[in-house]
Amino acid sequence: MQTQMWTVDKNVDNLKTYPHIIEAAQKLKQNEVVAFPTETVYGLGGNAENDEAVLKIFEAKGRPGDNPLIVHIANREQIHSFVKKIPDQAAVLMDAFWPGPLTIILEKKEGALSEKATAGLSTVAVRMPDHPIALAIIEASGLPLAAPSANLSGKPSPTTANHVADDLTGRISGIVDGGATGVGLESTVVDCTGEIPAILRPGGVTKEQLEEVVGVVTVDPALKDSNQAPKSPGMKYRHYAPNAPFYLVEGTREEIQQLVNEKRMESLKVGVMTTKENLEFYDADIVIPCGERARLETVAEALYDTLRAFNNENLDIIFGEVFPEQGVGQAIMNRLSKASGLPIIEK
């Protein structure tokens, strides 16, 4: 399959009628799949009402079919065609955080969407992205778009069009290049089908921000207990992984350096993921900084690009620092834990 690339400046006037947007939307109307930027990561969009289109998303990513997809909309009116009701707390969250990096799980209308998009569940995950190109494409297509991250399943999520091209060229119809994304981590997923909203996946909106708006918010036990079955799209399987074994280390930088030294003595090529503050401290084969520890939002923004950068270095093992799990740090540690898939080394 030939993959077309369109470059679009998000600041262009009348994006909805911009020729490249119209071309991309036409592909989506034909039940093809197209990657496009959002404020979080690049998404791989397809018609959420059509089984054929949704299957193409799963096939392109190599994603298991029991992993539901998030449905993206451009305006609140769209939601009424496939959702039974909007609870009061969900409406408050929409008012506060839409458009933006918040996905809300609601009860869906029977037969309104492809069963494959929701993995046969009675609920649907919905969000309105805060990116002019994403909104323009959704509006121009006139469709609710199922759109997981536009990467091969298990690999780091894409924050540039080049990341998408590296993974999916020849597997999808098109890529809309709108430049680098902003937040860098996927949306927060909140289940609003119960009495108390529950975070199923931490992301761009923090627990603290949610609680400022709706009061008490719980957290899915599966985020801390690997024996619990996760309920959120994208949380069931290992994700975001670099090619080499990746270990998180709960310890001082001196203790991390000791681990590096031991592995190099075994003739292994070792990488370290740190932050700008500690860049000069480590002596390893490859040391890559991921943002600034003093500003965790910069770590979130750079995380996936950093994980991908290690893949260019032919490493045998990677050690990474851990971060405090407050604010966006909760989402950062969630993604790092999923990328590792290995027990944290505690020193």
From TrEMBL:
GO terms for cellular component: cytoplasm. It holds the Pfam family Sua5_C. It is found in: Cytoplasm. ATP binds at residues 63, 67, 123, 149, 157, 201, 240. It comes from the Bacteria. GO terms for molecular function: ATP binding; double-stranded RNA binding; L-threonylcarbamoyladenylate synthase; tRNA binding. This is Threonylcarbamoyl-AMP synthase. The lineage of its organism: Bacteria, Bacillati, Bacillota, Bacilli, Bacillales.
